[in-house]
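Hi everyone, sorry if this is the wrong subforum. Our group has a chain we'd like a structural model of before ordering constructs, and none of us has done structure prediction before. Sequence below.
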Amino acid sequence: MSRRHSALVWITFFVLCILISCGAALADEGMWLFNAFPKERVQQKYGFEPTQAWLDHVRLSSVRFNNGGSGSFVSANGLTFTNHHIGAQCVQQLSTHGRDYMKGGFYAATQADEARCPDLELNVLQKIEDVTGRIQSAARPGMSAAEAGQAQRAAMSAVEQECASQTGLRCDVVTLYSGERYHLYQYKKYTDVRLVFAPEFDMAFFGGDPDNFTYPRYDLDITFFRVYENGQPAKITNFFRWSSSGVKDNDLIFVSGNPGSTGRLLTVAQLEFLGDVDYPSRLESYARRIRLLQQFAGSSAENARISQEELFSYQNAHKAITGYLSGLKDPQLMAEKRDAEQKLRGFVNSRSELKNKVGDPWDQIAAAVQVNRDIYLPLTYLERRRGFNSEMASYARDLVRAASEKKKPNGERLREYRDSGLPSLEQHLFSSAPIYKSLETAELADSLAEMQEKMGADNAVVAKVLNGKSPREVAEQLISGSKLDEVAVRKQLYTGGEAAIQASQDPLIVLMRNIDPEARAVRKQFDDQVDSVTRIQGAQIAKARFQQGGFNEPPDATFTLRLSYGAVRGYTEAGKPVPYFTTLGGAFEHAAAHGHQPPYQLPASWTSHKSQLNLSTPLNFVSTADIIGGNSGSPTVNRGGEVVGIIFDGNIQSLPWNFQYDDKQGRAVHVDSRGILETLRNVYGAARLASELQGESGNASAPLPHQHHRGRKP
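Answer:
Right subforum, don't worry. Here is the predicted structure as tokens:
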């Protein structure tokens, strides 16, 4: 994740029957669709079969944080629960010089103290509708791949807009199995989201980057928000009740969340592109940005404060991509992928009718991947803005593009500017989140320098952007001369449309206006020759898989709601057993073992209240539940639909799950519900919050002196 935040499928009835009858693919593998959940498999292995009412309740109690994570409702009064690292963007946005909620934590002792996030959007999945026929039929016989891709994108935009107009909901057409199925997801959207509680960063990320993606862990990676409607806490019918008993070894648990993306169904050519080109490039760029941010943070305490969340995001992403890449560099994993692909190709070639129907999609995808390799640098640095790493530059791009796209018919626009998506775009554009020009300048200068190094100083776009000046000089002129840090200016430009954009002399608007033709050209090449081809040909591969005998796993993740299940279970590493849980006392021991030095320094709130804690209370635990990035903040629930924990990480052995699940050592890592309650009451004095979680009434205790609070002055 970073500040630049930002393929589910229904299976037909006969495929679902095949899927369930095939037996387990690999233990507890599967980020399952809610409308195709393998109830019988769970019943067979664990003796529990979720009812449809149970599944509906879990779905409606689950929340997507649109900045890249998951969460859930945990009270009838709109209380919402996610990770600290998902909520950190809001926590930092609400912080100011002299009032650092990332460092000191935040607790709203009364409802009036709950602080509104500038631009957070939460989505709750209300309904799923199969629209496969309508989207696929838009691609008529005789169309080229580019024409078919554009026709299908136009059909998706039309379906979404009709849905949004009729229902008032957020409506997204989700591509599943590369386009073999399309489903319309309808979401209730909340945009008045207020911070209720966040622990100190040092406790939410105890152990820092060295402990990230490891286990045992001792983290309180949680944050509570509340959603409001019409200025009042929203009244929620479906929410998870809180478990005070927690979990024990081998308990069945479920994880309901929004995994971002997986590549389990990609072709070998697509996997090789990730391993050879994309991941190494990202790692190099992330490492560069980490060094920049560390240098920036080291120059002053204020710089450290304003860059902390950004630095954490890049460190987290770097370690995650390193883990993903390790899977693609695993000879056994890749051999199994090649073998499976060859078997499927052999199956197709042995059946003339199927061969005539699907052709050779693997070769066509391989050709599209080669195009992706060829255009990778301009696509990444120009169109996807790696060379313009700045929030203000992002605003400029959106303002320039929106002015042009909104004039077009809905179906002819770039997908991110379709009518149904404009409300979310506008919320981002008009966010009141603070912008720090010192950080903007440093990041933009470094990204311009990176683009110059990678694309070459003689590249036409690079030369146009720099115009004989150094990247630092250009960045300083662009950021200092721009007023896009002001919400009123952004609103004026957006509402003024193309006339306002063309008349603007804001240097960032001028820049994005000038390079937009080149950016659009490489975007069109990607859409026509890469995305359209892989969508159409990937759907053909999916048809072949169906014919071969059905899937042993659901479609790849697409940041839409999935349900995983598994068992609470430890593992063995280096010949030693790793217990399934850690305790509050273990956190103190872990700190002592590292000399109480950062990042192993417990906050003062913990050390001063140690005597009040039951140190044997579980804090973190692991399970075999199948997760990936995007599942952060997912509620962990038991058979009774009670919260027993929350996903906040996976161990390093789980990262290759992006491509292939294996539960020998890979584990999902959770914060335990018991540790959360114990610390809310006995460390943070958050009795009001703890009582709400437990369905109790009563007044909150007074704020603790060490805790930062937001509210009216006496």
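For your construct planning: Residues 507-548 form the longest helix (42 residues). The domain at 13-121+191-262+563-693 is CATH 2.40.10.120 (Thrombin, subunit H).
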